[in-house]
Amino acid sequence: MAVSEEPTEISTKPGVSRRTVLGAAGVGIAAGIAGGAALGATVSGRGDGGASSDQIVGFRGDRQAGIVTEAQDRLHFAAFDVITDSREALVDMLKKWTVAAERFTRGEETEDGGALELGDYHPPTDTGEALGLKPAHLTLTIGFGPGLFGPSMVDPARKDRFGIANRKPAALADLPIFAKEKIEPGRSYGDICIQACADDPQVAVHAIRNLARIGVGVVSVRWSQLGFGRTSATTRGQDTPRNMFGFKDGTANIRAEDTDTLDKWVWVADSDNPPAAQWMTGGTYLVARRIRMDIEPWDRANLLEQENIVGRLKGSGAPLGKEGEFDDPDFQITSYGAPIIPATAHVRLAHPDANNGAQILRRGYNFTDGSDGFGHLDAGLFFIAFNRDTFKQFVPMQHQLSRKDAMTEYLIPNGSAVFAVPPGLKPGEYWGQHLFEG
Q1: d(CA 115, CA 378)
Q2: What share of the chain is helix, strand, coil (3-state, %, to 5)?
């Protein structure tokens, strides 16, 4: 087929990018050369041929995704301060966030054509770094911090800016300071959190970046953390990963299939809150902790010492005195009168038997953030856990670990936060709707 040499007319319609029109013209010529073959997929942020359905995690449901969802390999976690006193502005932002977040989980832009097709003289409404990428099992999970409701660790004199103080859940409060911590306010607390998990780090970063962009003037990023290499399994089909100390981590974690255990230790029940806070029924509480690991001294400890500190074999992950990773620890086994699993071992002190039966759902990630300026790696564990009542589960456990666990010699917790994570969304609902409209 002959290619027409007739000049292509360039549209001068306001808001239409000449770059877009020229690109379309080029595609048309290419199609003519190909004898009228079908055009390929247009740029939509969903990758070649559109989003792959097997990489999309449903955004709506009884529970928020990103809690019992099979843990992905990458994380971008962000905590925001709300910088407005306008309830209307905050609710409007949450509505916009919900629309954008649902699109991101499908592998779409903030809006159709938002990165490239709004014209040369308009700022793009999507930053564009996820164009051509698959959804990568992206999940976005929102939580609300104590400061959103009034006084908090950050501002003890803060007023009830949004008229929701009476709707604060009973178990939502800033964590206490534990022994041997060095908590930095700039890495802690926050009014709202967003946990973005994905199999592609750029997909997770894109989501957080664009939500922050949408929230300009309403929220500002207080702190954020990138993570890699999940440190727990959340389904029975996942292998147990390893942490930065080289040990398998999260062997005894609650799994998505353990529904009775989840109901008991993770999901908030009607009876947990007064009527005004029933919006949290079916939700959970998120504990976030940035725990720097003292890598260099740990690496100089011999293998026997490391295994005694953890209470497991480094290779197989089996409890000391047992053979299989998933064997139950036996704290009664002794050797020459001493317990095989030392009294100060992490496994012993974190076990439900030592914590009135309490369990938590872990969903943490490794991190490496360069060096500290003194030749030491700034690396460790970004600990994330979900529980039904933080002050009956996580806090007592952490008090015990911080005082007795031999591992604390190699840990420097420097970030801390807790958030109320509401249940999932029904069709047409937005993040926080039952908090602000219930």
Answers
A1: 35
A2: 25, 20, 55
Triad 141, 146, 152: Cα angle to 5°: 145
Beta strand segments in 117-234, E: 139-144, 192-198, 219-230
- The first and second tokens of residue 259, run together, are 């529904």
pLDDT for the residue numbered 52: 66
Q: What is the pLDDT of residue 51?
A: 58
Calpha distance 157→146 (Å, rounded): 13
| pLDDT attached to residue 438 | 75
Phi and psi dihedrals of 326, rounded to 5?
-95, 10
| Two tokens, residue 146 | 């104590």
Task: Please say whether the beta carbons of 211 and 97 come within 8 A.
Answer: yes
CB atoms within 10 A of CB 69: 19
For residue 106, the model assigns a pLDDT of: 98
Q: Please name the residues in contact with 122: beta carbons below 8 A apart, sequence gap of 6 or more.
A: 15
Side-chain half-sphere CA neighbours of 144 within 13 A: 25
| Count of Cβ atoms closer than 10 Å to residue 55 Cβ | 20
- Identify the sign of the CA torsion 280, 283, 285, 286: negative
Integer Rg of the chain from CA: 25
Phi (first) and psi of residue 242, to 5 degrees: -120, 150
Residue 116 CB: number of other CB atoms within 10 A? 19
Parts of the chain with a pLDDT under 70 = 1-52
Place of tokens 């041997």: 180
The residue behind tokens 């957080």 is: 208
Q: Where are the beta strands (DSSP E) in 349-408?
A: 361-362, 365-371, 377-387
- CA 104 to mean position of chain CA atoms: 15
